[in-house]
Amino acid sequence: MELHELQRLYKEHLGEANHPRLAAYIALVEEVGELAQEVLNLEIYDKNEKANLLQDEIADVFICILELCDIYRIDLESVFLEKFRKVSEKARNEWCNSLTPLLKQKREQIDT
Ligand SMILES: [Mg+2]
């Protein structure tokens, strides 16, 4: 399923239940906070039995993004692809020589 199809699905099933504009942004922040709590549970508090909750919170964040896109009439696929192209170019031209080796080293230190 492509992003514009997900946006259409969102609008069809949840569009009538959109928050007011400002509350939609606050709902996104709330869900990002819940996602942060689940990352803490997994990474710091060793509550591995709740791993599925991380997936739920990521989905909640995405639903909130779809809501904001619906409210502000943003074509998520278009803006994503445009931004991704810019970030990829920057990664190829700037980050590969400086940042990537450092990040690889940090992942090995922190994530293993
Ligand atoms: Mg949630």
Task: Give the topology, please.
Blueprint: H1 3-14, H2 21-43, H3 51-72, H4 76-95, H5 99-110
Bound molecules: magnesium ion.
Magnesium ion binds next to helix 2 and helix 3.
Main traits of this protein?
112 residues, mainly alpha, Helix Hairpins, 2 domains, 0% strand
Order of helices and strands: HHHHH
Oligomer: single chain
Give the total of beta strands. Answer: 0
**Which stretches are low in confidence, meaning pLDDT under 50 for 5 or more residues running?**
none
**Residue share in helix:** over 70%
Q: What's the shape? A: flat
CATH topology of the largest domain: Helix Hairpins
Strand content: under 5%
Radius of gyration: 18 Å
Total tally of structural domains = 2
**Helix/strand structural class:** mainly alpha
Level-1 CATH class name of the largest domain: Mainly Alpha
Cα-to-Cα separation, first versus last residue: 34 Å
Helical stretch count?
A: 5
Identify the CATH homologous superfamily of the largest domain.
Answer: MazG-like
Bound molecules: magnesium ion
CATH architect. name of the largest domain: Orthogonal Bundle
Mean of pLDDT: 93
Major sheet, described briefly? Answer: none
Would you mind describing this structure in some detail?
Helix 2 (21-43) runs antiparallel to helix 3. It is built from five helices and no strands. It has helices at residues 3-14, 21-43, 51-72, 76-95, 99-110. The site of magnesium ion has 4 residues, from helix 2 and helix 3.
